[in-house]
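ok so for the tutorial part 2 we go from a plain amino acid sequence to predicted structure tokens. step 1 is just haveing the sequence, like this:
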Amino acid sequence: MPQFRLDKEIPPQENRFTLLGPEAGHALRVLRYKVGDKILCLDPAGTRIEGIIEKIGEDLIAGSILNRRPFKESSLKINLYASILKTQAWEEVLEKGTEIGVAAFMPVLSDYSAITLKKEDYPRKIERWKKVILSAVKQSERDSIPEINCPRPLNEILGHDLAGDVSLFAWEKLRGNQDQDFDLEPVFKNLNLQSLAVNLWIGPEGGFSEKEVELLLKRKVKPFSLGDHVLRAETAAVVACAQVEYQAKRALLLKSPLG
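step 2 — the prediction. this is what the tokens look like for a chain of 259 residues:
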């Protein structure tokens, strides 16, 4: 069932909802919602609300709340530090990353980034990126909406302490390398898997420059291999997220009493 984003949080004691703007317009004109229909909405606090439509207007839907379900946060938080790509490829990273479960996107300006952005363009770009992410949230029926940050140069980001329990970067030069030092599986064995934040770095087409790799290694960002083949940057981002999620959940299962 489609879900729609509310502009503001609804207090627990409130029993009514109002959906406004493009979200309401989409529900009314594209999906043909009408009075008496049930509708799912997501508020900024991450609460999923089921309501019944009692009133419609021009880009407006209002009604009563039938039930609400707080967002159940995943134990794994992936912060995706991805080098900005050309428009279509970058939006694919945002879309597929959202579907997989990325918690936050950190756009990185790296030496080999295919595009350059001016700071005055950031608000317009971020607004567009938010729309792509929101569309993917609705499609995948996620409860939470990933954060999207302003683009920053790689060296600037690494100039500060990184939040998170472990930092990893996919390195294309390890393609086909069978050395266990570059395998993801051992990474998660000694971590607190009940609450785990992973900083995952993905380079642009052509990868990170040698200078950037040196900087990543200096800051204790661990390299790993994505397998035997050369992947497009947007594919690498999706594969890397899926590998991290798989290995983290596998490690958690093995540590459980039934593992």
